[in-house]
Amino acid sequence: MRIDRDRMLESIDRLAAVGATPGGGVTRLALSDEDRQGRELVGRLMEEAGLRVRIDDLGNMTGRRDGSGDQPAVVLGSHCDSVRRGGRYDGAYGVLAAIEVARRLNDLAVTTRRPIEVVNWTNEEGVRFEPAMMCSGVVAGRFGRAYVYDRRDLEGKRFEEELRRIGYLGSEGDRPGPAAAYLELHIEQGPVLEAADLAVGVVQGIVGITWSEVTVEGRADHAGPSPMELRRDALAAAAQVISAVEQLARRTPEAVATVGRLTVEPNVINTIPGRVVMSVDVRHGEPATLEALVAELEQVIAALADERGVGIALDRFWTSEATPFAPSVVAAVEDACRELALPSRRLWSGAGHDAKYMAEVCPTAMIFVRSRGGLSHCEEEFSTAEDLAEGADVLLNAAWRLADRAG
Amino acid sequence: MRIDRDRMLESIDRLAAVGATPGGGVTRLALSDEDRQGRELVGRLMEEAGLRVRIDDLGNMTGRRDGSGDQPAVVLGSHCDSVRRGGRYDGAYGVLAAIEVARRLNDLAVTTRRPIEVVNWTNEEGVRFEPAMMCSGVVAGRFGRAYVYDRRDLEGKRFEEELRRIGYLGSEGDRPGPAAAYLELHIEQGPVLEAADLAVGVVQGIVGITWSEVTVEGRADHAGPSPMELRRDALAAAAQVISAVEQLARRTPEAVATVGRLTVEPNVINTIPGRVVMSVDVRHGEPATLEALVAELEQVIAALADERGVGIALDRFWTSEATPFAPSVVAAVEDACRELALPSRRLWSGAGHDAKYMAEVCPTAMIFVRSRGGLSHCEEEFSTAEDLAEGADVLLNAAWRLADRAG
Question: Which residues in chain B (257-286) have CB-CB distances under 8 A to chain A?
């Protein structure tokens, strides 16, 4: 089975016209007027596809296609909100491809055993109301509804009032599910598929992330009269920490680690740095490997501090645990690729998606589609029509497999 | 011969009372009222030591002790201006020890063949009027007098007017010299002597300094979805540059090199750094070695840029050439140490002094005295009475050697 490419691309173009920016992107912040217009279009498209639309107490929109039985549904979801001057595919593609799945099943008069639900999650981006993915988080029991209702944007506007204002405050009984499986199709937002020359990737999970602050305390001295062997140069020590962070990640398959932020004191051309503060972001899909990476880094740091006579402290202040996806759903996606004779590879998502929270309540996986230059959250974000069609073909076939299975 | 320690220390205490700060330091900015008071005290001390005092067109004060002949003088100098909340020894010690040399020669009724001149240079620090060492610079022909006269402080006050205001605008004919040799005694302002457990160091020259700005251009990307092998991380590359700068200096005797200033863009915890700009300060006493160090660094940078696929540019924007001191004057200082049975070592000055310019017009050297913790330009600056006395003993004996030599 293949989706109708032109029909899907036309839907994408129509939604991209809502909140369109001069640079070719979109701005549809959650619960804004543009979000409302986008929701109205998505609702019409769902209805045209024969889906029964319901709105829950968080504004999540669900379009349901009944199955032959009354079992839990296969849920296909993503989001239609965007960042400021974001791309036209991030989120929207996943929702519109899922609607195309329903249309295509209609075209072919396929009745699945399980119902199929298409979900447009509210506020995935978390730009206007923090945190990100808050409404799938409520459905998964991660956040309380009252917490989300009380979130305010920078102008002080409450989430609940804004949801009511745009006309999308529904009822708790209309949340998505119950779900037998959750599938999310999304652009990759990274360069892996482009580098591998592949249109489609099978996402095996969302990596665990841990953030630490590393502080190096040396001794600030005049750069002139201090011989190398008497120095306690905080930046020279920090440079070795940075190299160690990179080396640890390089020799650990699938790991990434980044020193993104670094400040030097006093930061003067002719003074040996006395203090460096830097961030370390480490990510891996296996919790044990993530812990081992941090432990190794702590050992390296202790040895460096000892060797150089400087103080180095690592403060691990935030961790988001890894979310491995369900082997059964990952396998359904891989089977779909095989069936379509589409080469693919497994990869990890380095960023969060609503699938992260859904994985806590039902078997879940994601499909990634190649993104030019790995760019996203910008107007230059781009995927080819061919790649978008192939990703949607995989979604269609994987959804059909999952929905037609007895259970 | 030994100086009279208590008499010298008493002079130091008296001058330290002028512009004294609550924290035990001094503030005597050039051509300030405190500088005038300091000069008045120094003039009185010179006269009490039997020196004939003259003031030149830059405010430099010279106290002359005649020799038996009419040959060029042995000039002993330093400065009595200070930085804001500076130490009580930086500069003042060298002037007051030189006055004590004259007193001691008087005590012992020594007549030298050459005259001995004691100089208090105007505005060595360059804090109020930039650049530093400007008045020895005029005497050495490095700056024109008009240039110096037109320098203004932050309030817009001209050097010449301020010099006239404090009553120290003399005449060109009263500049120091002609000089057969120049000797300057100074606290070390660095940790070498303390680390070597030595009271006195023989300064063989002032190092050359070169400043460069190194810019690393990588590619800013999300820290999550970018595998290590596809990154162009500007900070990871910069870390290797920092380590290379340190290694180059460590394996080159007497070299120092410092990355003191570094900024990261965009400097965000979960973004791979796209751009790093940093300073590199390299110093060495031998011009050829300094050039070789920069050339090696450029090679390392080119290889790193190639290996990592990043751009690295080195912009060498300032160089102060090295000033090796005269072997004859360095030898006189070492002979004096030997005569006093005082262990010493040779070292380079990593900072500028009036001796840098005097070395361009006559054979020159310096004597350093141990400075606790290598601290200077701060109220905590400290040298022990024993060390101060030993340094002055070396000045006395070296000056006597230089002044008594026929030629």
Answer: 257-264, 267-273, 279, 281, 283
